Amino acid sequence: MWYKLFNGLTKDAYEAQRPLPKAQVDTLVDESMYTYACLIEKILAYRTMDQDSRWNGYVRHEHSYRVFGCHYLMVFYAQDPHGSLSAEQVRGAHQDLLAELNAQMQAPVMEDLFLIGVEFRPCEDSVNTEVHLDAFYQSGALIDANTQRLYQQLAQLKAQL
């Protein structure tokens, strides 16, 4: 199932004339079967999520079981097109989301951070649902104490909203 979703992702990216960089594809392809199973398990759990979570979108975190320092932030896109986790919003702000993840994963610093966007779409020719993936990448980096403090303050402000 993972390979079918991943092949769809690479095909969609290629057709949109923004193919995934080879290094990212290699990292995703070389992942362990157990990690694939964990990612698929989270995708399949979508069916059991409450309607509010589906409407507003939600986030899950997974790490690699093959490579220490590789983490996956899975964003299940909101059905609400105006929500903060809508596909359009996340695609536009993926760098910020990955920068926040990088700020949180500093002890120790992570090497590879992936944001995997998961979108459930109704199938055009049947009553089934199609699953589409987006993948965004950022290399992990050490950030200084001042920047770390700013990210913590930002997180506190967001929590107050």
Write structural notes for this entry:
- By secondary structure, this protein is an alpha+beta fold.
- Helix content is 46%, strand content 22%.
- The mean pLDDT is 91.
Q: Strand order within the widest sheet?
A: 1-2-3-4
User: How are helices and strands ordered from N to C?
Assistant: HHHHEEHEEH
Number of helices: 6
Ends distance: 38 Å
- State Rg: 16 Å
Helix content: 40-55%
* Poorly predicted segments: none
Sheet with most strands: 4 strands, mixed
**What is the typical, i.e. mean, pLDDT?**
91
**CA-based shape:** globular
Percentage of β-strand residues: 15-25%
Number of strands: 4
Secondary structure class reads: alpha+beta
The gist of it:
This protein has 161 residues and is of the alpha+beta class.
Sequence-ordered SSE layout with sheet pairings:
Blueprint: H1 2-15, H2 22-29, H3 33-44, H4 51-56, E1 58-63, E2 70-76, H5 87-104, E3 112-122, E4 129-139, H6 145-160
Parallel strand pairs: 2-3
Antiparallel strand pairs: 1-2, 3-4
Provide key terms for this protein.
single chain, alpha+beta, 4-stranded mixed β-sheet, 22% strand
